[in-house]
């Protein structure tokens, strides 16, 4: 099979999975096996594109001409392949986790969940391999629409209210800003295709480019830059596997990936450095990092704390892209990978705690490490990855982001990154430390009603436990072996 056929297959496998899941809806074991097989097949197919791309092969597919110069087409480029590798691998792990969680928590509409999850991954593949902004926008909107029912999965008034915020902000920013920016790019550059070094001619007005850059930054609402971030905490009403999808596999990663790709392949590093608006957008990203960290520190609900942590960490990726330096771009791209593994582990752990211990608040977790040592150890490892310290891969992305601020001589932003790292220590590390070392309290997990003298709390169902162990191990693996992703980033930048 040639590379173009493999690219076609990456777009078709999720659709075939959706159909197969619907056909096996009444036989849950087969339905879940289909999900795992499809996810594994997609990851295998994406990995087959790695060596040909690095060898210099052009891998492209053309589907449809809409207007002259405006086509639905796809092309494999290094950063897109990096994103596809992460998303396809985590689809396998999230499906495994969801099998344990959905059964253990007695969730309804499980077939709908697995079907929409497959469709979401299909949209992610379209975003990752889009050859132009038009194609990217189509799949970007599809991702919003097919994740909305997942956010409202519970069907409660609270879930529907969260879904309205989710849909309103994401559709509002994409139609009000993102689409306008795409049209303006078409008029200014005469093309929407991604191009190394950017698409704008040297004589293009910097004032117009400043406005355009602002429209892109605010228009890609999935990147959750303040003040367009409220959809992310609002979406925490969804089941934990959906939170994992939103934070690590698809939605927010699609947002920051799109911003990184636009900065690099629509504007280009040299143009970004010359645009006056880049400076104040940098400080906006910095403010988003700091404010979200402070808000996270004040949250007692575990999922809300993790949600605001995500808003802060997405700011790191946006800031790295806007630094318009080699170090900043490298750190931004690496942080997409490192944050994906760290944050999905944290949400897996939060879901495991809910299923096994029925706890949702941070102050309820004291002593829980004695009953759930695997889960809380994974939480500790993932926290270190988000903070950016050894023995986890987050060390590399934070290191390159700091180098990026040095290259750009942005001393204030360097200090801000240091302060934010200290804040992330403050809102993440006390959770596992208290779980292992803090004594009993009135609302502690260890005060659960005993059976025959032993606590009723145990680890989450085995599939969920295996999944969070794999992603926690991935956080450590990425410290030791980041070369596969680094090679793609180097080729892409």
Describe the secondary structure blueprint for this structure:
Elements lengths: L2 H21 L4 H20 L2 H5 L5 E8 L2 E6 L2 H27 L5 H20 L3 H19 L5 H33 L16 H14 L11 H4 L5 H10 L1 H17 L1 H6 L2 H22 L3 H21 L3 H32 L15 H15 L6 H14 L3 H18 L1 H8 L12 E2 L2 E2 L6 H19 L2 H10 L1
Antiparallel strand pairs: 1-2, 3-4
Family: Belongs to the CPA3 antiporters (TC 2.A.63) subunit D family.
InterPro entries: CPA3_Na-H_Antiporter_D, ND/Mrp_TM, Proton_antipo_N
Main location: membrane
Question: In brief, what are we looking at here?
Answer:
This is Monovalent cation/H+ antiporter subunit D family protein. The protein has 21 helices and four strands. The chain is mainly alpha-helical and 493 residues long.
Tell me about this structure:
With 493 residues, the protein is mainly alpha-helical. The strands form 2 sheets. A two-stranded antiparallel sheet has the order 1-2. The protein has a two-stranded antiparallel ribbon with strand order 3-4. Strand 3 and strand 4 form a beta hairpin. Helix 1 runs antiparallel to helix 5. About 3% of the residues have low confidence.
